[in-house]
Amino acid sequence: MSVRVLVADDQEIVRTGLAMILDAQPDIEVVGQAPDGRRAVELARRLRPDVCLFDIRMPGLDGIEATRLLAGPGVPDPLAVVVITTFDLDEYVYAALRAGARGFLLKNAGAQMLSQAVHAAAEGDALIAPSVTARLLGAFARTGPAAPPAHPVEALTYREEEILLTVARGRTNSEIADELHISLSTVKTHIASLMAKLGARNRVEIAMWAYETNRVKASG
């Protein structure tokens, strides 16, 4: 079955371009487009797409608030949201992740990366561009979390601590499996356990927790 995607961007040429790239994929279908956050939220609630692809800076209701309304804490049956940004908008990315986004892309990402991010979000995973993961999360870890990091409901095992660090560095499940010499299913089991112990909704929140508890040191 095709992954159903809603695209929102206030720049028509960007919005159209993203939709064309996604529609060209054999297993992705763009079911709606929106020029601003308010329209995006309305369409998302009506169409219930598998993935919402949102620009952060949009008029009226920005991508951060739109994400919070569709995927934020306390939202029943939240939707998967991936936000798009550029290097000079790091602070907005962090806010979007806090609002419940599963991951982010840079606007210069190619068609393959865009497709991968959509599929990852649809499968309950999250694609964080590895090249900017440490830079983004590390920069904001230095400012301190908005609230004290939650204590795990149960102590993490040695293997979970290992996987926590790889997630925080932006590794994919396949990369983690190769790096730690374990099976892909074992990686998924440990990540599910981490989410349960940390009260995290996705691997983005696992990564932020690692930075906020200084398990991964900020750099750059």
Automatic annotation (TrEMBL):
The keyword Cell division does not apply. SUPFAM superfamilies: C-terminal effector domain of the bipartite response regulators, CheY-like. It holds the Pfam family Response_reg. SMART domains: HTH_LUXR (SM00421), REC (SM00448). Coiled coil: none annotated. InterPro entries: CheY-like_superfamily (IPR011006), NreC/VraR/RcsB-like_REC (IPR058245), Sig_transdc_resp-reg_C-effctor (IPR016032), Sig_transdc_resp-reg_receiver (IPR001789), Tscrpt_reg_LuxR_C (IPR000792), WalR-like (IPR039420). The modification 4-aspartylphosphate is found at D55. One of its GO terms (molecular function) is DNA binding. Residues 149-214 form the HTH luxR-type domain. It comes from the Bacteria. The keyword Transmembrane does not apply. Keywords: DNA-binding, Phosphoprotein, Transcription, Transcription regulation. Residues 4-122 form the Response regulatory domain. PANTHER family: TRANSCRIPTIONAL REGULATORY PROTEIN NARL-RELATED (PTHR43214:SF24), TWO-COMPONENT RESPONSE REGULATOR (PTHR43214). This is DNA-binding response regulator. The lineage of its organism: Bacteria, Bacillati, Actinomycetota, Actinomycetes, Streptosporangiales.
